[in-house]
Amino acid sequence: MLVDGGVGDYVASLFSQTNMSPLLVAWIIAAILRLCLGSATVAALTTAGMVAPLMAANTVNPGLMVLATGAGSVIACHVNDAGFWMVKEFFGLTLKETFQSWTLLTTILSVTGLGCVLLLAMFL
């Protein structure tokens, strides 16, 4: 619905006037969608459709866009994600312990992934 409604074109037009890296834009959009929806899969696929026009307007490595989108889509795993509950139950953790460990771990993973993608972008 977001893609068919022209949101991707709108997002591309919003960021076409900025100096922000398209890789960072993809990561931010994926991260926001992940936080709102809870699903990494939905966040990644929706972001891909939204940033496609942005990729066409810029010279950016498609592989790095995929990695940036994927990194953004795994940030802050929380209660709307089945993986959160599986980790909680498999390890016998309380809700607080799961937030302190799993949610923190996925956030570190996401930010580290973004850093690696931006570092790779300097060489590719």
Task: Produce a short descriptive summary.
With 124 residues, the protein is mainly alpha-helical. It has one domain.
Topology, element by element:
Blueprint: H1 7-15, H2 22-37, H3 40-57, H4 62-73, H5 82-90, H6 95-123
Helix pairs in contact: 1-3, 2-3, 2-4, 3-4, 4-6
Membrane topology: Multi-pass membrane protein
Transmembrane segments: 24-52, 64-87, 99-123
Keywords: Cell membrane, Membrane, Transmembrane, Transmembrane helix, Transport
Structural domains: how many? 1
Radius of gyration (CA) equals 15 Å
The total of beta strands comes to: 0
Biggest sheet descriptor: none
Helix coverage percent = over 70%
Beta-strand fraction estimate: under 5%
Subunit organisation of the chains: single chain
Could you state the order of secondary-structure elements as H and E?
HHHHHH
Mean pLDDT: 88
**In terms of structural class, how would the helical and strand content be classed?**
mainly alpha
What is the terminal-to-terminal distance? 34 Å
3D shape: globular
Poorly predicted regions are none
Q: How many helical elements?
A: 6
